[in-house]
Amino acid sequence: MSVAISAAEINKLRQQTGAGMMDCRKALTETNGDFEAAIDWLRKQGQKVAAKRSDREAKEGVVIAKTSADNQTGFIVCVSCETDFVSKNADFVAFTQSIADAAVSNNVKSIEELNEVSVNGAKVSDLINDKLAAIGEKIGIVAFERVEAPYVAAYIHGANRIGVLVAMSKEAEEAGKDVAMQIAAMNPVALNAESVLPEVIERERAIVMDTMQNDPKMTGKPQEMVAKIAEGKLNSYFKENTLLAQPFVKDAGKSVADYLKSAGDVTVTEFKRVAIG
Fold first, then answer.
1. pTM to 2 decimals?
2. What pLDDT digit, counting tens, does each position of 159-190 carry?
3. Which tens digits make up the pLDDT trace of 4-17?
4. Which of 57, 65, 107, 243 could form a disulfide with 163 if both were Cys (CB 3.0 to 4.6 A apart)?
């Protein structure tokens, strides 16, 4: 049984992937409206589209990233809303900032805990309900991240659209900012190849194999050669999409790992990125 595909769904896929309208329609039709499967379908046809990497994206909202006074604990708080009119409002930005401040001062560890802490005598959850009633839009804390390290760098990019935390082995303010900007711009899927989730690796391997099977240049080649080429393509994926292997945005002649070594042999142990998508 075929699923009816709406124009809004086609447009959503087009906006995220950059693929043509007809290709997006076909992708959604072939996958019975499954958005993530449609992205994979487009990639398997050889189209260079971006796979959605995060389930922590909100349509509109404000992202605040900040650290404790000793820079050893970092927090990201994202409060969502429905329109950019609200997200760009100074009062709403200040409202989100007050919630992030509460996260830091109470050293909270989850959204649930954050909703229970007090700001000026009122629980955060009650303040959110009051704000919802006042502005007439659905709002809420949709993302919360927390990291601990000997030094944590926090960075906010693009008018509170992206928040980044970088956990580091020692204090390195400039390197922390540079790497945070790299993460904001390049959106790596993991720290290094070893930390890429197995399901992500299998998904990428399946896309590589399907793409090669559709490539006439691969016809008749020995299976061993095809497998070797596929692994090479997978390694290229790791280089492009894992932080330490990526070319450093300020100097493409070196990797992020090379840059960190030159910056005083600093080690990045973890990072978090939350974006308004």
1. 0.76
2. 999 999 999 999 999 999 999 999 999 999 99
3. 888 888 888 887 77
4. 65
